[in-house]
Task: inverse folding
């Protein structure tokens, strides 16, 4: 199985700050066929299901604010949230969907 | 409007089977190239992909669960089902169903299942 190592475990932030969350995979998620990285980012708020933010490492899902930015390739990926808003306080997960079984990072809790 | 909704027992005794249903509305589970997944979230927040049944009925399970898991569907009711056998307290989790073409783009709200005597 591909192991997804996500850091940090938690982040204390203030509104207006920029934060970065990292995810490292134990093998490359870059497809040689289409040059896409099979890495997605999800946001989960208490009592809700995970919401897709970013797919193919850097493509923002429709309706996601542009303060969410995904970057990286191969084995190293980053989710950057600029100008953090109170509504962004949640848990964030990376997911590799390059191969089965799909595997998740351990999550990052964003809190005030 | 596409939606997924899980339903399940809430409480299951150890060694018994756990069964959860996912009802899909607004989208046929036989639509080409989509996969219908079960994912669970443990207390402590770890997420685990459990398996899927896809549009043509093919099934793939997480090897870590392969001996205990079964995923089936009823296309007439547009539902798919999870059965997990011989559960222990370590199977206590929120169980989600989710749609996938490449990534999981749509999730149900989840159902909490507690394994306890």
Result:
């Amino acid at each position: 199985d591909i192991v997804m190592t996500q850091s940090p475990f938690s982040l204390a932030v203030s509104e207006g700050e920029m934060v970065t969350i990292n995810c490292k995979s134990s093998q490359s998620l870059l497809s040689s066929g289409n040059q896409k990285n099979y890495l997605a980012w999800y946001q989960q708020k208490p009592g809700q299901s995970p919401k897709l933010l970013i797919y193919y490492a850097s493509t923002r899902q429709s309706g996601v604010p542009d303060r969410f930015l995904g970057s990286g390739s191969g084995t190293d990926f980053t989710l950057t949230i600029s100008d953090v808003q109170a509504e962004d306080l949640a848990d964030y997960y990376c997911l590799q969907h390059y191969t089965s079984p799909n595997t998740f990072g351990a999550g990052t809790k964003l809190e005030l | 409007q596409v939606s997924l909704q899980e339903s399940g027992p809430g409480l299951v005794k150890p060694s018994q089977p756990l069964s959860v249903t996912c009802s899909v509305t607004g989208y046929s589970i036989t639509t080409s190239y989509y996969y219908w997944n079960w994912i669970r979230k443990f207390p402590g927040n770890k997420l685990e992909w459990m398996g899927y049944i896809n549009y043509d009925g093919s099934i793939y399970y997480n090897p870590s669960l392969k001996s205990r898991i079964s995923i089936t569907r009823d296309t007439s009711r547009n539902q798919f089902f999870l059965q997990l056998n011989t559960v222990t307290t370590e199977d206590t989790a929120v169980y989600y169903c989710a749609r996938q073409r490449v990534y999981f783009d749509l999730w149900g709200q989840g159902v909490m299942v507690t394994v306890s005597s």
